[in-house]
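Recap from last week: sequence in, structure out.
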Amino acid sequence: MRGGRSVLEVTALHVPAGAQGAVVGPSGCGKTTLLAVLAGLLVPEAGRVRVADTDLAEVAARGNAALDRFRARTVGLVPQQPMLFGVLDVLDNLLAARHFAGLPPERDAALALLDRLGLAGLERRRPRELSRGQQQRVALARALVNRPALILADEPTANLDDANAAQALDVLSARAAEAGATLLVATHDARVCARFETVLALPARAAAGVPTRAP
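Predicted structure tokens:
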């Protein structure tokens, strides 16, 4: 609830493992909120959320550390703002994601992923030395580097031109398919919608009430 009003209301939503789709709707309809709930960043006021056959409430009951570790290993989140570690270079931003998940570095795999996203040669740059579009692609690489079971991308093409948007979507879709991961992309971008057969359309905010409580 927000100011006594519902933010998002979802009666039931089942997304099969390995499915890929877009979440669309007007600004303020709850697309970002839905992704935050699925990522375990927000707790629903009612109902249950299961990700990769795991009840997020049961994980959260074991403490924030358990939820953080589950999220780091299982969910790849691409937020609207890149939110990179400014003190780390590009490669170390990816390796930090591996570290937080308790996974080995796999430096060569991280470099290969950067190459697939057109970021080869930039691995030792700091985020402030990159364009906004490059930062967005680094955030995308960071979300994919742990091979998560669920990939959630919030407006991942917002700062990308047509060529880089197509490349980013190709990598998102391919990495999800390679890992058998579920991919959901929240977007206003017609270029994105055209890529997916499955489109979940959220209505304008008149319908809405799920979460606004952080775990």
